[in-house]
C-alpha cells in the first residue's frame, strides 16, 4: 500500500513507519522536524509540515491508499493537539480524495467489559480523573472522525510500553479486551497496519491489549 503517516516521530508513529517499510509498503512520513525521524529504509519519503494548514499536506496525501496517525499529546499540557491536528488532516484528506484513516486513541475512552476485574475498573476511573483533559481531547478527535466522510478506525490501546513486537495481542471491535493492561508501541503499530487493510474495522473503535 501507499501510506501517509502523521506523528511519525512519536513512539507509535516511528513504529508504524518501521513496520510498514519492513512489510514493503511505500511510506510518506509527515513530520515537523525531519531530523527527529530516526527510521530509514527503501520506500520512505519524508515531508516536513506543521499541520496548521491542510494545503501544504496535499502532495503528501495525493494518490495514497491510507493514512495512519500517531498524533497525540506528549504530555498533559499538550491536551487539545490530537483533535486540532486531526481536524487539519481530515480536511486535507478530503481535498486529496483519500478516505481511509487509522488513528491511535486510548482504552479508557471505552466502557469497561462487564466482567472486568474490580482493580482494572478502579485504575481506569483514576486515570479518567487524572488525565481528564487528555481523554477529552481524544474524545473530540474521535468525534471529528465520526463527523467526517472518512473511512476511519480508532485503535484504543491501554498503557503503552517500549517492549518488542510480538504480533500477538487481543482485539475487541467496539470495546476493549477484558483485563487489558498494557501493549507495546510496536504492537499498537502492528494493529493499526492490520486495521488499515481490514474493512471490518471501518467506522469502528478497536480495543487492543495483551
Automatic annotation (TrEMBL):
Q: What InterPro entries does UniProt report for this protein, alphabetically? A: NAD(P)-bd_dom, NAD(P)-bd_dom_sf, Polyketide_Oxido-like
MF terms from GO for this chain are: biliverdin reductase [NAD(P)H] activity; riboflavin reductase (NADPH) activity
Which Pfam family, just one, is annotated for this protein? NAD_binding_10
**Domain NAD(P)-binding residue range list:** 7-199
Highest taxon listed in the record's lineage:
Bacteria
Q: What is this protein called?
A: NADH-flavin reductase
Its taxonomic placement starts with: Bacteria, Bacillati, Actinomycetota, Actinomycetes, Kitasatosporales
